[in-house]
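queue> pop job 88
queue> type: inverse folding (structure -> sequence)
queue> payload:
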């Protein structure tokens, strides 16, 4: 083959590769969209996807172990857990147990399949996931989920591997709102406070979710880790440091 023929083949392959890269980039959702989806999973009405529901979720009657009522029963995390594994994860026992499955396999489904699942009448989210909210939630399900069972020890509730010193450096950004000791904002009650250190120690899976995606409806808006470019490793480092902060 002549040299010019080889050159043209290389140029063609390069062009094809660039086209495919452009297509992949166009299909990849933004970090902002994934973060919104994560906050919808946490609490969709506080994220602006509708009014807080007053009755129980229509599927709630299928279980009798979780005694939650009203709006709580509509939070995605209440059925599927902060670790996304449902009955096979942290919510596999205790007061939050429902027996409902996890959602870790959803990222293998297509966008259309995921939307069909969410808008199924039995799921009860037809009016919520229409339009952009549905797109954000699917983007979270397909691109935001991670397997936390391998990075957080379920018994000790500590990250399996993390750099506390690096976590302290990153926490400097969090300290602007939460204070250097994590006690500037109380998430609980005056007589039963809950601070950054409390959540980090008692529910590290929730901590990781909120650091990665932000807090729904917070004022000022809480920055999401994925918007900041933080990797899961970065978030686990922050978790390790935050577990050294005071709980009360």
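queue> result:
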């Amino acid at each position: 083959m002549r040299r010019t023929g080889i050159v043209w083949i290389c140029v063609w392959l390069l062009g094809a590769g660039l086209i495919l890269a452009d297509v992949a980039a166009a299909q990849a959702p933004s970090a902002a969209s994934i973060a919104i989806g994560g906050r919808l999973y946490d609490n969709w009405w506080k994220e602006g996807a509708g009014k807080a529901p007053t009755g129980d979720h229509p599927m709630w009657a299928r279980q009798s172990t979780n005694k939650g009522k009203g709006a709580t029963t509509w939070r995605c995390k209440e059925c599927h857990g902060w670790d996304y594994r449902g009955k096979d994860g942290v919510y596999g026992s205790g007061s939050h147990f429902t027996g409902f499955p996890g959602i870790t396999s959803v990222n293998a489904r297509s966008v259309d399949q995921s939307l069909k699942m969410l808008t199924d009448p039995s799921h009860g989210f037809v009016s919520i996931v229409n339009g952009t909210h549905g797109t954000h939630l699917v983007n979270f399900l397909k691109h935001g989920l991670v397997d936390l069972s391998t990075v957080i020890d379920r018994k000790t509730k500590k990250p399996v591997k993390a750099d506390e010193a690096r976590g302290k450096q990153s926490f400097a950004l969090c300290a602007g709102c939460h204070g250097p000791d994590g006690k500037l904002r109380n998430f609980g009650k005056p007589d039963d406070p809950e601070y950054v250190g409390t959540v980090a120690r008692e529910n590290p899976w929730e901590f990781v979710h909120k650091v990665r995606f932000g807090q729904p409806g917070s004022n000022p808006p809480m920055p999401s880790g994925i918007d900041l470019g933080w990797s899961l490793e970065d978030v686990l480092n922050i978790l390790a440091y935050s577990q050294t902060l005071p709980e009360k």
